[in-house]
Amino acid sequence: MTTTLPTKFTPKKSLGQNFLINPHIIDRIIDAARISEKDLVLEIGPGTGNLTEKLAKKAGQVIAIEKDNRLIEPLREKFKNFKNIEIIEGDVLAKMPFVKQRASLQYKIVANIPYYITSNLFRKIFEEWPRPELVVLTIQKEVAQRITAKPPHMNLLALSVQYYAEPEVVVFISKNNFRPIPKVDSAIIRLNPKSEIRNPKKTEEIFKVIKGGFSEKRKQLASNLSKKLKLSKSAVLEAFKTAGIKELSRPENLSLNDWENLAEALFG
Ligand code: SAM
Fold first, then answer.
1. What pLDDT does 133 receive?
2. pLDDT for the residue numbered 161
3. Which residues does the chain have with pLDDT short of 70?
4. Which terminus, N or C, of the chain has the lesser number of Cβ atoms within 10 Å?
5. Which pairs count as long-range contacts for 60-66, CB under 8 Å and 24+ apart, including other chains?
6. Quick one: 167 and 205 in the same domain?
7. Ligand 1 and 112: CB distance under 6 A
């Protein structure tokens, strides 16, 4: 197990700096992303460059964006002989490198991300950035389980990811593979983005219904929806009937497809 950090480097908790020290786990990430030389890869948070190096040996090009300015020079020095690695300094949430100029490009996102950006990053990837071909991320184990949940364990995060992509857990990883050792275990997840183009108006309606449905956990779905959407209970129950949803359903029991049908029945 190895990692190369600049001397006197103190990892910052606020930047989610838990570095992967097990090369076998890095290989699992690379395998999960099925990298070939035609791939352009966006890496978020290269850190010590451990994953970056292996990515660059298989991919056509790697663009790595790192927020911690203390790591930029060591990364550039380490990769000075790699023609296919570009190190960019910045916050990936504010500065995605190729949004506008190359909107039709094909790229993969592969990263051991800082966990504090997980939800915001998903929003960026699926709602703002050009659609990636594939996304492979190391994230917190519990978050990976929530994202891949199915009825009767559905939740808001699962629906917001599954609306845009098919998620799968590749493997769970013990926290002992990171330095400093974090409090939680992790997982490698692979997200296969769906090819259909989402209609913004329909998307807004569906999420209005989903968020309304999950608004008060202990209440029944029909009551939540009636309150949040300002509709009579009978109108909501009529839409349930049209969408084939049982009257006493709870939000965790509904699949993405059920929510889509329900939004259609409510808003047409
Ligand atoms: N890739 C390395 C590895 O696997 O060992 C480092 C992973 S570490 C979990 C997360 C990295 O993301 C750190 O290097 C951290 O400085 C960087 N980072 C944190 N927030 C970031 C942000 N908003 N944008 C880009 N990089 C960020």
1. 94
2. 97
3. 1-6, 98-104
4. C
5. 60/84, 61/85, 61/86, 62/86, 63/88, 63/97, 63/98, 64/88, 65/89, 65/90, 65/92, 65/95, 65/96, 65/97, 66/90
6. no
7. yes
Structure tokens belonging to residue 158: 């699962």
HSE-up of residue 35 (Cα within 13 Å, Cβ side): 30
Q: How far is the CA of 161 from the centre of ligand 1 (A)?
A: 22
CA of 39 to the centre of ligand 1 (A): 21
Domain of residue 231 covers 200-267
In a domain, 45, yes or no: yes
Mutate to test the pocket of ligand 1, among 4, 9, 19, 122 (most ligand atoms within 8 A of CB): 19
Q: What is the pLDDT of residue 217?
A: 76
The answer to whether residues 173 and 90 belong to one domain is yes
